[in-house]
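**Tokenised fold:**
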Amino acid sequence: MTIAVVVADDQAVVRAGFRTILEVEPDMTVVGEAADGAQAVAAAQRLRPNLVLMDVRMPGVDGIAATRTLAASNPDIPVLIITTFDLDEYVFSALRAGAAGFLLKDTEPDDLVLAVRAVAAGDGLVSPRVTRRLIAEFASSSPAPPTSSTSVALTARERQTLLLVAEGLSNAEIAASLVVSPSTVKTHVGNVLAKIGARDRVQAVIWAYEHGIVRPGA
């Protein structure tokens, strides 16, 4: 399967750089580019890519608004946010709006490729380097969730798994930490997502911060 990507960034040189990195891979192709959020939405709806690589700050319609539009109208097209701003208060809003992942632009090319594959496969992803910093920062100021949603009964192992997911660990890393198989971790993660009503790992991380499973700043 070839992963079709739309790259949205207001700088042509950045778009060209991403295209170069991705198209070296035999299973990836950039099918479209966009210089702002409105163009990104239009390109995604026209080209039906497997993923949109979306900058946050763009003129006109920014990446957050574009992400929100795509999440509402085309939830089958995941958005991977990639930005220079590692403390951008808008990124948390973008994740809550439906982005499937978040990376910084100084991410190593190999890590970008892995992230694109993960998000295209349906696995939400947040860069481990910013998971604790950025999400904790803005989850601490987010409105309190409804009381009824805090009564989810997670087992001890599911809670432990969620804590490690919130630290940005992959399934393989969680398996090594808990001394279990990756398939067992995948089962635990699936059970957690089902119980808390989260679409992916990104939403699970946000839920963990909002509900006190992980304390902001910890």
About this structure: The chain has two domains: 3-126, 147-210. The CA atoms of residues 145 and 210 lie 7 Å apart.
